[in-house]
Amino acid sequence: MESKKATTNAGAAADFENLEYVSGFGNHVSSEAIAGALPQGQNSPLICPYGLYAEQISGTSFTAPRKLNLRSWLYRIKPSVTHEPFKPKVPTHGKFVSEFNQSNSSATPTQLRWRPVEIPEAPTDFIDGLFTVCGAGSSYLRHGYAIHMYTANKSMENCAFCSADGDFLIVPQKGKLWITTECGRLQVVPGEIVVIPQGFRFVVDLPDGSARGYVAEIFGTHFQLPDLGPIGANGLAAPRDFLAPVAWFEQSTCPGYTIVQKFGGELFTAKQDFSPFNVVAWHGNYVPYKYDLSKFCPYNTVLIDHSDPSINTVLTAPTDKPGVALLDFVIFPPRWVVAEHTFRPPYYHRNCMSEFMGLIYGGYEAKADGFLPGGASLHSCMTPHGPDTKSYEATIALGSQAGPQKIADTMAFMFESCLIPRVCQWALESPNMDHDYYQCWIGLKSHFTCEATTVENTDLQNGHN
Ligand SMILES: [Fe+2]
Fold first, then answer.
1. What's the fold here for domain 294-428?
2. Can you tell me which residues bind Fe cation (predicted)?
3. C-alpha 388 – ligand 1 centre gap (Å)
4. b/e for 56-69, b at 16 or more Cβ within 10 A?
């Protein structure tokens, strides 16, 4: 049986628009593109159904605790090992970092903000369009992360990408992504995210012709759903809203097909003569998955004060320290704000964690100007940040008469880490760097008065007027 790979023709579009998925987070899934292709009763029979090869992909050590153990068995037409030796990619990529140190990146406590990077004019696919902005730690030592961004204007051709360094959490901001993986295909639109676990080979096609977005790559661990604590058994991101692909394969000869492997922050290429998307059936719990952020069920303040942003955690990559994340993925979705006698925007803040923010669409409540969809900001460990002057003054001017308000048509997000990021030189020297960012706070004036708070003021603050 042969199936065709979707590219850009109308039939392929229908394929990607109407894909089936398997629902659930972290499930052990079985999927077969041909009935009977999945071996029964054992993982590695002497002869697999249809003459397929059995191949395991391990996302955790064999001996990781069962509740954390991730692996899948892939049944494929030819095994992944059938390729020529890896060679350093020519030309080199040059804008990936996975070992952050003084030789390749800088530390700065300054608040940083970038305007959106333009879509390039030169032909640029997803791989070439990726560049590291900042990060910490080391992919070699299996502890750390890198934050990348991408702009691209063409589909990947006759090649597949994979990162041996870590999981890719991709946040598209502009342009639909058609992603083909060894487990099957996914369509991911802005407003959705996709996680491609470490080691999976994938291709990104751009049906809209251009794309821009953000990537968090994590080294040495994987994303989990956060614990819900007193919230209870439901709320935030529901497990059933995470969607994994179903088995899909192509049986084709592809002369000169190239596997581009990110390994220790460098790219290597290996030639083979067949598509890596030749997995006819698979089972396991180590799989790519996507999630629609509009399905997030926000919990928030219903009386006083602004909740800490952790209340909006979609996924967390833990460290060994309880409650301390290597990287949290947090969103700021549409929601009602109703708090009484409360400064409703995010509070002024210094944080032992470091906060990288992006904006998918709309505006962000703490920044009246300058933080644009496709742009980014970085507030590192203990760097002060908070609402800009315009947002502060507008909030105070409203007083206690604001009433319930809906923050609508917006989706901002944050990658928050316990590790302090170092920033790549090309990001610091980018023409998109907003060198006047600090100005947004310079206008904050003193409202201090030595006069005691009056009863009238207290009443106002308590919402009695
Ligand atoms: Fe903060």
1. Jelly Rolls (2.60.120)
2. 349, 355, 385
3. 13
4. ebebeeeeeeeeee
